[in-house]
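Postdoc handover notes: sequence design on the structure in folder B. Input tokens:
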């Protein structure tokens, strides 16, 4: 499927009718965005007034345990033309007490609790995030001790005197 639109016809993949303003069909855009978040395709160039993360929330959400996708998003933020604006917005949010959770914002990774992870600690965080904690089972209750039946020594015999 050709990536550039000629201004006429339909998409061979999904049947989308091209318009004069649309260069790619919606299916092609979704496929490109998914390949980009998986690291199989390069990060697309931003439109004027938009950052590299615009419309690609899944790439900037901290999910799973693989650090490679997080590092790609952090690297994309470092070359984004709107990085200074994003950093200002982030600092304003943090100053007002709003926590950023499970997200990469302004090239900084935040955990589910809102704690920031330094760039050097991303790999260690991914490993720690993948660990499972041992389940603490409460100890099984011990059965109540039952007294043993009393026995008479054999030299007393069976009968009473």
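Designed sequence:
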């Amino acid at each position: 499927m050709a990536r550039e639109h000629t201004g006429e016809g339909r998409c061979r993949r999904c049947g989308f009718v091209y318009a004069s303003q649309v260069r790619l069909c919606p299916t092609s855009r979704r496929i490109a965005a998914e390949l980009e978040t998986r690291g199989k395709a390069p990060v697309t160039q931003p439109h004027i007034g938009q950052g590299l993360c615009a419309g690609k929330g899944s790439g900037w959400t901290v999910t799973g345990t693989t650090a490679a996708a997080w590092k790609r998003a952090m690297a994309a933020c470092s070359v984004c033309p709107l990085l200074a604006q994003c950093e200002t917005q982030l600092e304003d949010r943090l100053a007002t007490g709003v926590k950023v959770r499970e997200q990469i914002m302004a090239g900084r990774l935040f955990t589910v609790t809102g704690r920031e992870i330094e760039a050097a600690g991303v790999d260690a965080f991914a490993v720690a995030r993948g660990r499972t904690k041992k389940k603490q089972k409460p100890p099984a209750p011990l059965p109540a001790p039952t007294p043993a039946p009393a026995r008479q020594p054999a030299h007393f015999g069976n009968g009473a005197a």
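Context for whoever picks this up: Residues 83-95 form the longest helix (13 residues). Don't rerun without checking with the PI first.
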